[in-house]
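Internal ticket #5521
Category: modeling
Description: The requester needs a full-assembly model to guide mutagenesis choices. All entity lines are attached below as received. Residue total reported by intake: 441.
Assigned to: D.W.
Attached entities:
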Amino acid sequence: MTDIQYVAPSTLDEAVGAYAAAKGAARILAGGTDLLVQMRAGMVKPGLIVDIKKVAELSAIEKTPEGGFRIGAAVSGAVLEEHPTFGKVWPGVLEGLNLIGSTQVQGRASAGGNLCNGSPAADSIPGLVAAGAIATVQGPNGRRNIPVEQVPTGPGKTSLAPGEILVSFTLPPRPAHSSDAYLRMIPRTEMDIAVVGCAVSLTMDGDTCTAARVSLGAVAPTVLLVEDAAKALVLTKLDDASLDKAAAACSAACNPIDDKRGTIAYRTKVAGVLLKRTTAIAAERAKGG
Amino acid sequence: MATVSMTVNGKSVSGEVEPRTLLVQFIREQLHLTGTHVGCDTSQCGACVVHVNGDSVKSCTMLAVQADGSDVTTIEGLANGDTLHPMQEAFRDNHGLQCGFCTPGMVMSAVDLLKKNPKPSEGEIREWLEGNICRCTGYHNIVKAVQQAAQA
């Protein structure tokens, strides 16, 4: 049995220092819903566990001076759900995060962990990509900001450099009549891994869509930002022809695997179907808000 | 090894654990409180649900060192002597179990539900218990038990 150490620093500098000094032998512990399972299964054998839950900035939910939100990387889905306004502004981001696991898992699991785990099927990530969220990371060489869609680079892999820790997500301020939605296709009703996930963020002016971002999960090695689908929606009334075009763009963006959950053909088709359904929900919410 | 101290069912306890030790292992193997069960070991089945600082947690999702200094309640801490907790009473009255393996976790989850939502609908009960899996498919009577406890 290998030795294993545990540290729970209260500052980010200490956390980065410990994480970087371990040179790849360390793992970050946020909610633990991936890491502890992977350790029990023998998939990872860290020499050091850096628990980041005691770093205040990583557990904070704040409004930015610009009027957006900054969400600490270790904030759990249950805590975000209890925030008085976040779910009204970003219902799609919240519903993606709280589709993960069960009640108790939602009490521990964070969007930051979901991103760093690097699953192409991560339910909270399409919503953040559609939101245009920026990830802030800190490492031995300081801080940098990267769009969320540039963090995952493949199943289980991220663009974070050695020693870098994900600190927070910054979501932009919302124009009036904007909203978002997330839908995933699973064969059961709960507690399953997405066959396809789709997030849509829209701004409406009356019946006209004036801004859109579309993201797909579980259809490629990483969560995708589908700019062609968004282009097909902007400056339309979300009529059938525009939705067909956006759905086709979603299907065209797919590069999925065949597995027990769904075939390539099925995932590719469902991506387009979900685009239409998700857009309808986001538009309804945006018009109401 | 690390030293952890916490309050479990109102009693101060401490022990030496490896950092990798799960909270559920500490509870079962060092405190010998074996009412908390291990089912899947992967945070899915809910047999290991306990309360940590008042919230229900799957105790296989948490390291014992993370629970250092916290207040933990297990299934053994619910009853008051020979008087069962109203939720335990309701599970008995409604036959909310068959083999009983999932029951400690079900009861601990259900107690947390009623604390947060004292009058849940049937749908809300079923949704809350989505992370507690009953192998005997006894959900119907479990839901009835929670409904009865909510009226108690």
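Resolution: model delivered.
Comment from assignee: Residues 103-116 of chain B form the longest helix (14 residues).
Ticket closed.
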